Known about the structure:
Layout: H1 3-8, H2 14-22, H3 36-54, H4 56-69, H5 73-87, H6 89-92, H7 97-110, H8 117-128, H9 131-134, H10 138-151, H11 161-167, H12 169-193
Helix pairs in contact: 2-3, 3-12, 4-5, 4-12, 5-10, 5-12, 10-11
Amino acid sequence: MNFLAHIYLSGTDEGVIIGNFIADGIKGRRYLKYPESIQKGILLHRAIDTFTDQHTTVKQSTARLHKNYGHYSGVIVDILYDHFLAKNWERYHDTPLTEFVSDFYALLRDNFAVLPTRIQRMMPYMITDNWLESYASVPGISKILKQMNIRTKGVSKMNFAVIELEAYYEEFESEFTSFFSELIIFSQQKLATL
């Protein structure tokens, strides 16, 4: 899952939200230097990633992309799934997406000092271009995929994945909806044990 899903699946504890958001930049046991609630968020993120990567429905989505994008298929599916979460946000959350995202950006600003350097550098771009809200539209996802392709120096060709998104839109959306209902339950249960 990508940024929006990880934030959503964190619940309401601000430390868990921060930890889940920064987790990709925290390797090995380095998470232990953070406060307990942030540690929980990092561990939740890792559990979500493992659950996602092993899930047969997600594998079905990534298989559709594998021929053209190889090992980048999983990254692309994470981004596409965030599109379907943002597009259908009102099904999953009572707070409007605009307000939810604005609150998250404020949380990042308030906790800037605890963020890893890489996130501190990325944050202004994320907020200025409003990545999380932009996920709700196909043009927004297209822009994100283009940015990701630039980050891979053009190797991933992710910028073309919007073609598959549009060609198999209903299939991807159906797979997301089925999978995400299971992931919500998994995440709630995991968070309760951390």
